[in-house]
């Protein structure tokens, strides 16, 4: 996950997505943990493109943690600012 255009985005290799989606549908799971440890938001998205998730940075607060899981891949992003 990286920050692009003031949004936290999950991006994947386009060739991988095209090859994998031909055989089966893939789901991306994510959640946002508030600074106090409570769950703020969660979701499941069906992946149709190489940019399946975009979270505006303005909606995230210092100390929150975003976790994303997709097809054996998990990434954690802590909001520092």
Q: Tell me the Rg in angstroms.
A: 13 Å
Give the structural class. Answer: mainly beta
Q: Beta-strand level of the residues, as a percent range?
A: over 45%
- What's the order of the H and E elements? EEHEEEEE
Q: Estimate the global geometry from the Cα principal axes.
A: globular
Question: What is the arithmetic mean of pLDDT?
Answer: 83
Main sheet properties: 4 strands, antiparallel
Q: How many strands in all?
A: 7
Largest sheet: spatial strand order: 4-3-6-7
- Measured as a percent range, the helix fraction is 10-25%
* Total number of helices: 1
Which stretches of 5+ consecutive residues score pLDDT under 50?
Answer: none
| End-to-end gap | 16 Å
Explain what this protein looks like in three dimensions:
This protein is mainly beta and 81 residues long. The protein has one helix at 14-23; strands spanning 2-4, 7-10, 27-33, 39-46, 53-56, 65-70, 73-78.
Describe the secondary structure blueprint for this structure.
Layout: E1 2-4, E2 7-10, H1 14-23, E3 27-33, E4 39-46, E5 53-56, E6 65-70, E7 73-78
Antiparallel strand pairs: 1-2, 2-5, 3-4, 3-6, 6-7
